[in-house]
Amino acid sequence: MRYLHTMVRVTDVEASLRFYRDALGLELLSRRDFPQGRYTLVFLAAPGDHAAQVELTHNWDPETYTGGRNFGHLAYQVDDIYAACQRLRDHGVTINRPPRDGRMAFVRSPDGISIELLQAGSAKPPAEPWASMPNTGAW
Amino acid sequence: MRYLHTMVRVTDVEASLRFYRDALGLELLSRRDFPQGRYTLVFLAAPGDHAAQVELTHNWDPETYTGGRNFGHLAYQVDDIYAACQRLRDHGVTINRPPRDGRMAFVRSPDGISIELLQAGSAKPPAEPWASMPNTGAW
Question: Which domains does chain B have, with CATH numbers?
Answer without folding.
Answer: 5-61+71-119 (3.10.180.10)
